[in-house]
Queue: 2 jobs
Job 1
Amino acid sequence: MKQRLPVQGAQGDLLRLVATGAAESRAGLARMSGLAASSVSLRVEELIEAGLLVEEGSGTSRGGRRPRRLCLSPTAGVLAVADLGAHHARLGLLDLSGAPLVVEEVPCEITEGPEATLDLLSDAFDRLLAERVPPSVPLRGVGTGVPGPVDPATLRVVTPSRMPGWNDFPVADHLRARYDLPVLVENDANLMAAGEARSWPGRENLMVLKVGTGIGCGAIVDGRLHRGRGAAGDISHVRVSSDSSVICACGHHDCLEAYASGAALIAALAEAGIEVRHTSGVVDLVNDAVPEATSMVRTAGRRIGEVLTVLVNFFNPDVVAVGGSLSAAEPLITSIRAAVYERCLPLATRDLEIAPARAGRDAALLGAGSLLLDAVLA
Amino acid sequence: MKQRLPVQGAQGDLLRLVATGAAESRAGLARMSGLAASSVSLRVEELIEAGLLVEEGSGTSRGGRRPRRLCLSPTAGVLAVADLGAHHARLGLLDLSGAPLVVEEVPCEITEGPEATLDLLSDAFDRLLAERVPPSVPLRGVGTGVPGPVDPATLRVVTPSRMPGWNDFPVADHLRARYDLPVLVENDANLMAAGEARSWPGRENLMVLKVGTGIGCGAIVDGRLHRGRGAAGDISHVRVSSDSSVICACGHHDCLEAYASGAALIAALAEAGIEVRHTSGVVDLVNDAVPEATSMVRTAGRRIGEVLTVLVNFFNPDVVAVGGSLSAAEPLITSIRAAVYERCLPLATRDLEIAPARAGRDAALLGAGSLLLDAVLA
DNA sequence: TCCACTTCCTTCGATGTCGAAGATAAAGGG
DNA sequence: CCCTTTATCTTCGACATCGAAGGAAGTGGA
């Protein structure tokens, strides 16, 4: 079962406020939405009538009458979201508040091309829906992250270096043809940033770094994901100063990614005679206090930090959140912090927080849910 | 005469659309505002009644009946705006569409402190109003740019390196006490960016560089000025790679400003035995094809370009506009362009335009008008 | 226990906005 | 020149939103 969400006008805003947890009573909705209390009551009545909201007991008093707590009906619908990686797809179903109902990871070679990959994805969605969701609960939207740039205007993948066969493929159209629902297609780092943003309420400007096998980055500006022309957020191919000279996959010399990514560290360790297979292995070495590994992670952190100084001065964010598998190595974030604090303007670092990412492994799925909800309630 | 603009609700939006030139008929307003044509008619009627709009002949037909052209009444009001520099203040009066009525430059030492400077400014405003504006035309708002960071929450100047005595001074409150009108206080580079933005219709993401005695920068993100925590846009104290080592006024080594600003070039020329007093002198030397000067400007452009690569990859703007007195030296922009195009991701430079600023010497005043209009019509 | 006070929520008349329909005014083609 | 087409603008009834007033349901202090 699939079905467009039947909301119009102010109903969407109210539903969104309940979904995101910003408000959970009529009075709270009135405060947050700016609508008059009377209007809120009317719209809420309609949303309850439509089966999208339910009244559930009463909340805690703020000094007067207790509010009647509102929450999304569990039957209001679900969202199907995924995050495509090079060899795996992480996918799941969320309720309309963005909370995961089920998440799983399936092997999936993105090099097999868009049709095969997206069909595998859709089949997995359909299976999960059949297994986990009563037929009466409709699917309301579909979204996926891809490991490459997405043109925000057309929702096509553009010049993806790691996705042969995907160039200019109309991902959104392909999914829409199957589901006829609001569809979201977004770069994976951007999704992660959007997901992370929900873990930092009140912070309007965030940089979210993903340091894993590669290096990704997304930016939240004034509370909204910054897309630019579709390529925004890249920092992996920034030139770093170095004595040596390494050629990056992108064709340039001395890219940050060629020095500070998990893949680069694995290669450097191999040269030092230490064999490691995955980025997690590097983290293990650091936790075992292997000096070479620790030193290399420190250097990587410093290099990332040096690039960040430029961006922190310019963008002046509230938070730099560092995630990705390599962020589990504690010296990484410490040395990023040291480089930024040493070199940035005091004004820019005065209230800046450089901290581990909070949203966890499902950050990208949560981000997809957050952005998709906006599309569903548009 | 001063007076808050008596607009409410949709009237403000409509007036703003006329003021910015986005629409000039009722039908155009309906298209741009999203309001129904009938509502537009009603509100426009009220605005004409209030003397803020006037009907002025008819516009050009788009295939049917000719629209009745609307424009702001010349008696609707004026804005008083200024841009404080280190030794001069540029100030003027604008009509509500943001067009300058009169602009002049007065000597003004910002080191004399906030009270003296702001009083000088206010006196100049009052004089211009008395001389140039009929008493029946009310002042609607006051705004100024300052050469230092401004906290967007409190509109106070914070830790300004070149404005001794101004730290934490409540500039906005001081002006509001005298005028009791909407007041704008903003960093000068940000004002320039806002002014430049109006010269690039349709472009939503801009970086605006001001290369003069110092180096300033402002960013327009999704059509709005990005403030961050008040320090956004700074690129002058980014570290550049260099053989030598120069100490900047900020206390760090090898800041961009210490290598690529007009002041740095004047110092470097002096070392080469060539005496120049102002940045304009450097431009003259370049235009006279003095090889040392040309070479130095090229190097400065390349250094600026190298810093820009990081920001262009990350921010992915539509336009980088280069202004400031040194931008008149043609090799500057050429070498910036070369550095950015050589090193940035193709996706980021695909539709990127790196061009001379269009807004001219009054850019900051125009920007102040643009931002102030938003405050006046809020 | 009673009562003043706060907060939550609804009722009701006034006002704003909408869309459909029609009046007005011009362009363009036979 | 007339008629069709297109666009602009206004009129009018339906609906949404607002604010004020008041009822409902709590809290906290005398």
Job 2
Amino acid sequence: MPDFMYDGKVYYNPVEFAMDRIGGTWKIPILWRVKDQVYRYSELKRAIPHISDKMLTSQLRELQNDGFIHREVYAVVPPKTEYSITEKGKLAIPLVTAIRNFGIDLMEMEGVDVSHYGR
Amino acid sequence: MPDFMYDGKVYYNPVEFAMDRIGGTWKIPILWRVKDQVYRYSELKRAIPHISDKMLTSQLRELQNDGFIHREVYAVVPPKTEYSITEKGKLAIPLVTAIRNFGIDLMEMEGVDVSHYGR
DNA sequence: CAGTATACTTTCTAAAAGGTAAGTACCTTA
DNA sequence: TAAGGTACTTACCTTTTAGAAAGTATACTG
């Protein structure tokens, strides 16, 4: 597997590249909400337990820069911003679903209660 | 999404749980070799560019503790240890493949040369 | 009895990721 | 003119992840 560069960073393989775009603690939870609904900033904040303003803003900005979500700012006061998934973002959803299902499978094997998670 | 505990750690969702088992820089590259061949420690080291002894050992141990790979030690000198995938480990391969394919898709969209990666 | 081969193990360090808390900007409304 | 509501931004700190380099154990071989 040859290394390659993108945006000033060296990657060893495609998995690393993929995980650099949608990995981390918060990007998938964000995509998971936005996949079937438009959300305002404050709605995302409420919908995603434990997330801080700093992380919500930075991860939204990265997802936007990578083209996975769209940011619509309204010129009103108090401010209003809406986030929605893009066509490119929709391409990630089957994978997110697969990771989630795999996680549920593993949890089940370890005896973790999994009855809350729809399948 | 309710939080849950496993092995002394709090998780927010199944994706986090899954990524805690097979995520990080080195676990997937290891699984990717071992999926269709038995490897000795030194063979893995040679097969996975850039990996350090410390990371190779620690990630092998974690994958073993989580039941994804099997470790067979031979009582010879110099030492010989063989690593192979388990049935549980095989369950992860379709997901690993999916992540890899998604990464290749993204790279292609960004104009990264992708011709080396079999599909 | 020094050298070799293999599979680790340990220590120290650097970089990345993420948390907390406080602050900013803006216009409207009382 | 002060307060309120929303969407950030910034500074500082802690934790996690990974890298580099050196060391350990063992038995065979010349």
